[in-house]
Input
Amino acid sequence: MATKKDFLKEVIQHIDIKKHDVVPLVDSMGEMAFSARDLNRAAGIYDKMIKDKECGIILTLAGSLFSAGLKKLVFDLVNNNMVDAIVSTGALMIDQDFFEALGYKHYKGTPFSDDNFLRELHIDRIYDTYIDEDELRVCDETCAKIFNSLEPHPYSSRELLWEFGKYLENNGGPKVDDSVIYAAYKKNVPIFVPAFSDCSAGFGFIIHQTQNPDKHVSIDSAKDFLELTQIKLKSRETGIFMIGGGVPKNFTQDIVVAADILEEDAPMHKYAVQITVADVRDGALSSSTLKEASSWGKVETTFEQMVYSEATVAMPLVAGYAYHKGSWKDRKPREFQKLFTKETVAS
Amino acid sequence: MATKKDFLKEVIQHIDIKKHDVVPLVDSMGEMAFSARDLNRAAGIYDKMIKDKECGIILTLAGSLFSAGLKKLVFDLVNNNMVDAIVSTGALMIDQDFFEALGYKHYKGTPFSDDNFLRELHIDRIYDTYIDEDELRVCDETCAKIFNSLEPHPYSSRELLWEFGKYLENNGGPKVDDSVIYAAYKKNVPIFVPAFSDCSAGFGFIIHQTQNPDKHVSIDSAKDFLELTQIKLKSRETGIFMIGGGVPKNFTQDIVVAADILEEDAPMHKYAVQITVADVRDGALSSSTLKEASSWGKVETTFEQMVYSEATVAMPLVAGYAYHKGSWKDRKPREFQKLFTKETVAS
Amino acid sequence: MATKKDFLKEVIQHIDIKKHDVVPLVDSMGEMAFSARDLNRAAGIYDKMIKDKECGIILTLAGSLFSAGLKKLVFDLVNNNMVDAIVSTGALMIDQDFFEALGYKHYKGTPFSDDNFLRELHIDRIYDTYIDEDELRVCDETCAKIFNSLEPHPYSSRELLWEFGKYLENNGGPKVDDSVIYAAYKKNVPIFVPAFSDCSAGFGFIIHQTQNPDKHVSIDSAKDFLELTQIKLKSRETGIFMIGGGVPKNFTQDIVVAADILEEDAPMHKYAVQITVADVRDGALSSSTLKEASSWGKVETTFEQMVYSEATVAMPLVAGYAYHKGSWKDRKPREFQKLFTKETVAS
Amino acid sequence: MATKKDFLKEVIQHIDIKKHDVVPLVDSMGEMAFSARDLNRAAGIYDKMIKDKECGIILTLAGSLFSAGLKKLVFDLVNNNMVDAIVSTGALMIDQDFFEALGYKHYKGTPFSDDNFLRELHIDRIYDTYIDEDELRVCDETCAKIFNSLEPHPYSSRELLWEFGKYLENNGGPKVDDSVIYAAYKKNVPIFVPAFSDCSAGFGFIIHQTQNPDKHVSIDSAKDFLELTQIKLKSRETGIFMIGGGVPKNFTQDIVVAADILEEDAPMHKYAVQITVADVRDGALSSSTLKEASSWGKVETTFEQMVYSEATVAMPLVAGYAYHKGSWKDRKPREFQKLFTKETVAS
Output
């Protein structure tokens, strides 16, 4: 009879873009057609964002990217000043990044599994990847522990993610050397998770708020929106690098309109790149073109490019290209986290 | 020179499933293959949920459904006790339902538009649909007005959506006869929007919190999660009818785990149906199969069915089938809103 | 131990569009957005083709449509003068239509099968549909028998399909009342299969040509192209109703260019409708837009519409709409088969 | 006013896999999840085919690959004994490879074109690529010229493709150094185009057969099927590397069944790899899984892998991986063309 150990054997390893100089390959793709040429153009636009001294760069993340081996890639972007703010789903940051920072792993699996049998073994499946459900429960409880330790009032997710970084700092550091939350904490790169209850942290909140029915920590995603808009107003010029769609894409596009509501004439996002397989024909936001976003006054159409590819293939090429072009070497960190220092970082 | 009026001429009209008895058509589809047979099975499972006296039904909505003519359909589900709770994106409830309740409309457009020109005219585009940006700004401001009128403390989105219903009640009722927010208010069907700042309400919050920096309304999506979990614990048996994926899908699947954390042995969702075009091969949650959800202990595999179709085509067939089967006639409203009455509804 | 019989129990039944008046439903879809509105427009264009007295209608078929229950639908189009020529894949005509005319059936299955076990049982799977491999072998052999009976020279596929119709006529008629090949034979609707060796007929040819190495029947798809072009030149105005893409789509679009090569100034296809889920971003012909075809001078852009839907759901709505609008009642059969009478039909 | 020259300026350039050692990158992808890991596995299986001394390798090609910059890649596979037979669409071989061998080019364009204007300028568009329609007409006429020069009888497409190679040889060689047809001619790699009338050659046939109504060249795709089956019977072990689906995929999978009809117990394809974006849920052959093919007795399930990616991105990685692994260096050419020498090559 197979046991949990039989399934959780081969650890997912994160790709290291620093080891693969894809510049000549991606340059060649620029002379081809279809997705290859689109990918090349997207990589070039991302490099342009990095070169543009005036431009703040916002990375949006959706989809199960870190369990799929793209965590170190984002870590490298943060660490090398290639991104100034992150807007993400909760699962990526908590169930995957924080989870690995606690010392747990993701494992190679297969989509052709017997899910009822996996459930009996307490193994969760993400397409072709396995997770130890019992380890995830520890992650949930660690979230509850962090919330229990905080002053009971409404927080933006940015504040809470910063607390997660601090928790790692105060508990011997992350157990891995590529934690995105921890790197962002050290580099003052704010992380926003607009739907923060929709992940392991949500389970932490369930425990925390049930145990503390009257006075407890709450998450104010309106504050998230206000804070990200303040970053837009501070930076003026912005570029967005989007992986997948969902709330992170919509939320980040919307801050242009929000900025326009607070101060007339906020500029649109000057650069916009998205990697996605979503089909435009369902009319949903995740697949909506960047040209469509321009009708809303959110994205300029000069430097925008969508790339039709699953992220694990395209993102190492796009991000690797920008890394090896090296424009980040002359780029100063924007440290947008410091905009909010009085509230949280000084504590 | 074309003006805004030239573009905003043909109003989108919502389909009325009551007028189309699709039962024989959908029954025929059950004898075919591919999506037709899947659609038939999904319709049958939805009808089973309605027949099952023990089962609470949660509808999850993502994608630009109401601007596309599916609003009255959801209104009819609410009004005829075919759904007991809704988990939705913010855009659907505020930018589209509340927006139309204020008397505004969506208009037929085309995906082959010059988006820069549309922007100059203050017209927003959703694929093949146009919206008057100036009317949306009024919607934003109305949200701010509602928030300004409330006691300044953290709210669940459910509480706020209820306040939107009350606002309509107190201001002469909605200007249309198919408002989902208003019907849900009258029928005590709670509506959850876990990423509530990610829509027109977010702009309202930006205004409200900027005007009231010290004391203001905030949204606590952790409370959302707790409340929806309480509904699960109350109902025990549940069925989910999902249109699109995104946060609403994930959030609603997760309450089984949340319930399990609060009380051992919460049952999985007994029935699950999803209409989506998302491709499973990107590994993201929106496209993840309901079988995969079963590895997480979220969904039972006996009565689950995904339908590969854009929602405007499949949803009238699935919902229309269940409507004309008539099992809802014997179904009592669950009025889950009353679970939380002491907090808000009594006010 | 499961046997073949346990798997081949539930017969696929073909939808009867005559029984479902979908006109009000499809009309309602025209007031919505996204695929529903596209579907309505496509249905309207198909009806326009039927009303246009000058227009010859070519139906192109790709994908496993008849095994999925769409055979009687095409039969009804042929029988009611709603289509004047068919361009198809070989599998549809031989492995599926002729196969059922011989008395065999397709069966409901599931995509979650153990394919190695199915192979041992001689069961072939098409996604969620099962076929008896041994019955298919009889179909292969029947093809060989027909080829053995013919004068050994090159034939167009149109000529051969006509011979299949004649074979059914001379052998007691088809064993079903909805054979497309037989209806086309009786109604003088030519059927073209440009890649005719790529199906059960190919196996028949393998047997026939191996047994008759020196003198044998061969298939000349160049002749197909010439003949279909002659139909275009005869009809002048044409409309195309395309299900899926592939060779049938390309081949049929190309006859405009071929006609232009033979006689200057052949008109483009005046009407064009395609139902497909293929994604335009791979640059392939199957997904290429009808606007792109217009750059090639193949399709006019005034009355063209693509519908993003799997065929089993959309085709009954589009074809059913045109059937119940009834414009076909005033339409005379074009009997394009008679253009080639001297060669084959008289025999 | 823009002229044709303004549009046909930037030439598509073919990627040179020899210049990009992607082995470390693709190896890293093998430790990730989703498409990256699938791509790694596919590359490994292709390398295994090359290493397997008993295995004949068949490459199937569908989609507009050569106009997109993948021609030199296939040229390199042929030239380095990494493929023993090719099954292709006609457009790839004639409209794209032979077209470029005549000295013409493909040009970078954009999907956001005014197709009516392009048509006026005699520019054909393939998604984001432009072609000079007048040059294509020269290609059509050259085909006619070749057919006019041949003995009038039925040919397999393989024989005709070989004649195209000979034509290039006898007319000063191709005007480019990466012609696939010419390399295959020199290396005795047979090329099959089962739907050969469905391309520029079809226009050549229209001209040829119209000018020579009584005695003319015809194409016998049944002979194609028989010949490819003979290769299977000769090689016994086979591996297939499929780009896209369509007729080339189906045709090549079917030869196992054909071989089984001619001689009992022909082995299934031992290795099978497919790169495609087609969605399995439409039930069509192009998207059908290799596991499904195994129910038909066509493909073994031990070494099969589908990769969900547009070809311009994935094919350089898969083929480049196999190239730089270098297993081809020890591989002898199979020269399957010589199986048929008596008929054509000796002439």
